[in-house]
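Exercise 3.2. Students should predict the tertiary structure of the chain below and write it as structure tokens, then compare their answer with the key that follows.

Predict this chain's 3D structure.
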Amino acid sequence: MADKGKESIGDKARACGKFFCNTEDGTVMGRGAKSWAGIGIFYVIYYICLSGFFAAALAIFYQLVDDKEPRLTGADSLLKANPALGYRPMPGLKTTLVRFTDDPKSYQEYIDHLDTFFKPYTGTQEGAIDCPGDNSPRNPSAHDKACKVNWTDLKDCAPTSGTKYGYDEGRPCMLIKLNKVYGWQPEAYSDKLNDTAALPEAIKGLYKDYMVTVKCAGQNPADVDNIGPVQYFPEGGLAYKYFPYLNQDGYLAPVVMVKFKAPKVQTLLMIECRAYARNIKYDKLELDGAVHFEMMVDIGARNVTGGAGK
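Answer key:
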């Protein structure tokens, strides 16, 4: 026998329906038309005020932000006025090993990466201007215009049509660049020209006046022996005339192409590239002022020997 004091499922359904729409009292979910109208007006006013507050905050934000210049620059910025280095081609997000064989498929990705990077350089470089003369710093009055980067200075590693950047010969070219830091200008080690006494020992013989010297070397003694001779294009490094970066129209960062002429094959090479200027701080652990990557030329020695003799 059913329990008389217990509600049936039908009774519960009718009670639920009556709560949502009670025709006897003229309510919906327990509220009448007047109550719902009051709630509706409240939320309309609430969201209008909320939208107005958001619009005002956004307007103030845009008043404080400059389209050209970051709010924090120099030592106050996150980069602390110390440019980091980047390299190309980058093999991926999870590895820094550039490895290839004599199979063109193994290095085609690297060639495509470099070709893509150089597309703006081999174009018209619209917005930038020709900066003839030496590599000395330009007058501040001329900083509103960027200098065109002469990619033909990259010579053996230049992005000419059909180039393989030396990967087909086992003599790869790696691109090294300074990351852009707004307003940063390189400082020479000495106020005098040709003052080699003020230079770090590591760059004597490479340094040229008015240029940020870039040098790549093996990270460990074995790597120093196995890396082989290295050539840099352009010679001397990155010219001062390309600095500072001020978000100019058409600005392209200057680059150095590093050609490894005879790396030991089938050997993992740990390589560190550094940029040298008086105001570039170097930290080996944090890799400030430097960049690290690995390379393995996984091809037969006869291929490299033949290329190195060219």
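Discussion points: The chain has five helices and nine strands. The mean pLDDT is 88.
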